[in-house]
């Protein structure tokens, strides 16, 4: 094949592995020669020869989540386009609490990079990743000194509160999250703090009982909203920290005989695939795009690809029928 393309065997190897420092015209000529000869490179053979796989581990706390699944789709598609593969490490347990990341899992597939999605690693787990001496990128989580992709959490929450206030609501409650064991507490904390700050900045009414923790789960969010909306002195609008939480608020309103949006407005964050079906006003983020960007940052760390990748993905307020001026 090297003879057919008029280059050295080393250049052929670099081009077929999509490594840098091969001119585009040369790479095209090599790929054309490979296609003409019916040659398909073997990742396993290359790994045996070089001691390096083309696998990237994607560590998630659970796969039973539209967000994590969408991020994984974006990571996998981008890696495959560059000739790499994703190895999933799912830390879910039956009790809903993630298990700890182990050195054995990280080393079994000999990944050359890691993408950590949506949860907080403790100090020991972070040390495991750092000892691997491989590039690391996070999505929706933060590790000191590690590049991360996500959304501006505070701004997303502000957009919801500002939207409800612009409609005329002065009493805006919040169904959010405190600390989910084994998950990432930063998201719930950031959105709660931004809600409180926006309420104060806009001069709106504030009551401690207008916050309830739903732990980003439908049932817990429903229970928190039942307590909040069942009181005589209830808010006229509820900002839910996620669309999943908002679905729980909608269930609570239905159980209490409250009409949405006539009696209470409800808005969330995410634009979950079911949000449109529930006519839910929400702030749209794109987890698949976040996964794509994370993979691009990781590939750049591996010497594949060039150019800066923005860390924050854009936000968009999507107004639907679940919000309206207060009665």
UniProtKB/TrEMBL annotation:
<dbReference type="InterPro" id="IPR010982">
    <property type="entry name" value="Lambda_DNA-bd_dom_sf"/>
</dbReference>
<dbReference type="InterPro" id="IPR028082">
    <property type="entry name" value="Peripla_BP_I"/>
</dbReference>
<dbReference type="Pfam" id="PF13377">
    <property type="entry name" value="Peripla_BP_3"/>
</dbReference>
<dbReference type="GO" id="GO:0003677">
    <property type="term" value="F:DNA binding"/>
</dbReference>
<feature type="domain" description="HTH lacI-type">
    <location>
        <begin position="1"/>
        <end position="50"/>
    </location>
</feature>
<keyword id="KW-0238">DNA-binding</keyword>
<dbReference type="Pfam" id="PF00356">
    <property type="entry name" value="LacI"/>
</dbReference>
<keyword id="KW-0805">Transcription regulation</keyword>
<keyword id="KW-0804">Transcription</keyword>
<dbReference type="InterPro" id="IPR000843">
    <property type="entry name" value="HTH_LacI"/>
</dbReference>
<dbReference type="InterPro" id="IPR046335">
    <property type="entry name" value="LacI/GalR-like_sensor"/>
</dbReference>
<protein>
    <submittedName>
        <fullName>LacI family DNA-binding transcriptional regulator</fullName>
    </submittedName>
</protein>
